[in-house]
Amino acid sequence: MSVTAAKGFTAAGIAAGIKQNGNPDLALVVNTGPRRAAAGVFTSNRVKAAPVLWSQQVLADGELTAVVLNSGGANACTGPQGFQDTHATAEKVAEVLSAKGAEVGAGDVAVASTGLIGILLPMDKLLPGVEKAAGELSEHGGEKAAIAIKTTDTVHKTSVVTGEGWTVGGMAKGAGMLAPGLATMLVVLTTDADVEAKALDNALRGATRVTFDRVDSDGCMSTNDTVLLLASGASGVTPAQDEFTEAVRAVCDDLARQLIGDAEGASKDIRIEVINAATEDDAVEVGRSIARNNLLKCAIHGEDPNWGRVLSAIGTTRAAFDPDRLNVAINGVWVCRNGSVGEDRELVDMRYREVTITADLAAGSESAVIWANDLTADYVHENSAYSS
């Protein structure tokens, strides 16, 4: 499973001492080639962490040899020193990998961080940790790497899809601040398909647009969101672009669902499907508005099929619709018909974890799905007890 399922990759996850509780907090993923193509998408938040700014720069040539990730500190809003620390981390990775016989420069290393914003990383622990992680690199190290990037996650998240002689694998972390633009939290995807950087970029952007970018757990966008896709070419197989894109999408979709399933404090996963919209953009806007309606999220937590709050959320958007033609179903029961009372709301069974809301705009033929969660007392408690 995870990032070492594809040939041509090694990984490690260790406890470097960045987290005070002593849990694993540093991961290293290395592409051993022969190809070192890469692509990435990042948060659209205008406040970007130093590792995001660094990784965007080093990806300009479409190549990466390694990714180093830490939990226990976001290295966001840390000024020039934070960027220098990111650079120093990449330099250290390049140094230790070069000592093992590879030809690696700092510009071949992406950096990703997650954790508390506004605090400098303990470089006296992180840099020796890089050396330790390099010593533990293994073709079987993917799971340890996935565990090392957790913060408030209760489980580590991995996924694999196999094609004809080639594989796409991945790992993700994320349980809060899940309302991304182009990415969500930290994700590393790997493939042994022989694919050039441009094809990787097309596949990744196509996949994230309909997966990670349509997860909206709590309406909060991170400063550190990073999704990277690395190709080793070790299989020697170049799949058709549509086949490869579908495999990347499937891995991203699986990881996105795992993020929703592990969202902070959640007791319900909400699948919001907007149908018969005039445009796809309208469908996404409406779905996201429903997902971010706190009154509705509370009602879902209380197993109350309050369809009026769905209509209220739809009404705040710029989407094309006639209020007197709107229809809403909750778990398959059309509780709202033509903007008014539909089937008996008592027919809605909301006992189970997954809740489905269908919003019919009756304005066209486009659709979109957004995933969200309910709003619980546990969410409030976790985010008042944990500085974020």
Mean pLDDT over the full residue set: 94
Question: Count of DSSP helices?
Answer: 10
Strand proportion, as a percent range, falls in: 15-25%
Q: Distance between termini?
A: 30 Å
State the secondary-structure class.
alpha+beta
The side-by-side strand order for the widest beta sheet comes to 13-12-11-14-10-15
- Provide the low-confidence segments as ranges: none
Element-level helix/strand string: EEEHEHEHHEEEHEHEHHHEEEEEH
User: How helix-rich are the residues, as a percent range?
Assistant: 25-40%
**What best-fitting shape do the alpha-carbon axes yield?**
globular
Number of strands: 15
Radius of gyration: 22 Å
Main sheet makeup: 6 strands, mixed
Task: Write the topology of this structure.
Layout: E1 9-14, E2 26-31, E3 37-42, H1 50-58, E4 66-70, H2 79-99, E5 109-113, H3 123-135, H4 142-148, E6 157-162, E7 167-173, E8 186-191, H5 197-209, E9 226-231, H6 241-261, E10 269-277, H7 280-291, H8 294-301, H9 307-314, E11 327-330, E12 333-337, E13 340-341, E14 354-360, E15 366-373, H10 377-385
Parallel strand pairs: 4-5, 8-9, 10-14
Antiparallel strand pairs: 1-2, 2-4, 3-9, 6-7, 7-8, 10-15, 11-12, 11-14, 12-13
Helix pairs in contact: 1-2, 2-3, 5-6, 7-9
Overview of this protein structure:
This protein is α+β, with helices and mostly antiparallel strands. 31% of the residues lie in helices and 23% in strands. The strands form 3 sheets. Strands 13-12-11-14-10-15 form a 6-stranded mixed β-sheet. It has a 5-stranded mixed β-sheet with strand order 3-9-8-7-6, with helices on both faces. A 4-stranded mixed β-sheet has the order 1-2-4-5. Helix 5 crosses helix 6 (241-261). The longest helix is centred in the first third of the chain and has 21 residues, at 79-99. The radius of gyration is 22 Å and the shape is globular. The mean pLDDT is 94.
